[in-house]
Amino acid sequence: MKLFAPVTLLVVLLHVVLGIRLLPGVAQLSTAWPALAVLLVVSALTMPLPLLARRQQIPRWLQWLGLVSMGWFSSLLVFSLFREVFLIGDWLWTTLAAHSPAGMQSRRVLSAGVVVMLASLVTVIGYFNARRTATVRKIDIPIARLPAGLHGFTIAQLSDIHVGPTIRVRYIERIVESVNRLGADMVAITGDLVDGSVAELGRHIAPLGKLKTRHGTFVVTGNHEYYAGAHAWIDELKRLGMTVLMNEHVVLHARNVYGAQTDEEINESALVVAGVTDFTAEHFDASHASDPHAAIQDAPPQVWTRLLLAHQPRSASVAVEAGYQLQLSGHTHGGQFFPWNFFVPLQQPFTAGLHRLQDMWIYVSRGTGYWGPPKRFGAPSEITLLRLVVLD
Q: How many Cα atoms within 13 Å fall on the side-chain side of residue 94?
């Protein structure tokens, strides 16, 4: 609440600045310039509202409007900055080359219209990309010394759904329907499921309890679970029948081992599935400090194949030391929409996709939902079906 006033003031000032820079040019291009003025006013008034939603009753339609405005204004601001760089270069070129300033003025006017059109187009496309059900992305992971019994073992990964003001029960139902059609051996949910309390969002998460796989659904916490009350959510997810891995592991067998006589036979198709709490969890609860080593403690040493679920990719440096073959992560959203994909590497070692770190693979999901603005552009959401295969 203390930050609300200064943030609101900053938001309003930025809108005023963009209005001063863009409206004169747009007014010379079209008589529809008042529409831009109205959009800027609506955006300035509604963008701060989602910040209040957890402490005050803000109607959902206003939260929707504020979040859509946030996405539109973000693109408008970025393209406006590009325009300012272009105009500075244009002024230098015109001045040094002694060209007529008339051409510079026409480019100033035209570029204002281009900025508004691009920002609006990206926002519309991004909206539909975000609201559609995530497509299935299939990835083969070649694992050295993979037991024959694990060849073809499939993992459906969901990540960063962010159930909240704009992602509700029907959105989750569509995801569950898509995953259940895959017939995966297990589901891995790598954090950031929710942006709100159990009381508010419990019924919207409930369809995840209907995920159908041979070995079940395994979950690790993300940073947003801690913002929303991790302890209550851990209890709720367990109540729904999911296995929440808190720096711990389970051993799965891809094949029925009934009647096996030796440890070698029993472990021929065994897989250690470990999970850690979020990388930043200790800031919220010291007992939840993320620890890939503890997660694998007392795991059968003869079970070579070890999978780690860790919300943030930056857990990988410790995970590779602990002896995992594969880490599944999320958190980054692949940047979600331009230009934020360029900022992810400032905090995380990997942005999206399959990567190699020494002897360990790491797969980073771009996320199955979205956070904040309902907008994805250049970073489509995904349901990932990962298949373990023998390394040739």
A: 15
Predicted local confidence at residue 261, as pLDDT? 46
Alpha helices in 287-345 (DSSP H): 292-295, 316-322
The answer on pLDDT for 179 being more than 80 is: yes
Report pLDDT for 40: 96
What is the DSSP secondary structure assignment for residue 196, as one 8-state letter? S
Q: Tokens 């010291």 belong to which residue?
A: 286
What residue ranges do the domains of the chain occupy? 4-131, 135-390
Residue 88, token pair as written in the block: 């500075």
57-70 pLDDT, tens digit each: 888 899 999 999 99
> How far is residue 186's CA from residue 41's CA, in Å, rounded to a whole number?
48
pTM above 0.90, yes or no: yes
Distance CA(123)–CA(102), nearest Å, equals 32
- What lies within 8 Å, CB to CB, of 269 at 6+ separation is 147, 148, 149, 150, 253, 254, 255, 257
What CATH class is the domain 135-390? alpha beta
Is 80:21 a contact under the CB 8 Å cutoff?
yes
In angstroms, rounded to a whole number, what is the distance separating the alpha carbons of residues 158 and 179? 9
**DSSP code per residue over 3-40:** THHHHHHHHHHHHHHHHHHHHHHHHHH-TTHHHHHHHH
Q: What is the 3-state secondary structure (H, E, C) of 241-292?
A: CCEECCCEEEEEECCCCCCCCCHHHHHCCEEEEEECCCCCHHHCCHHHCCCH
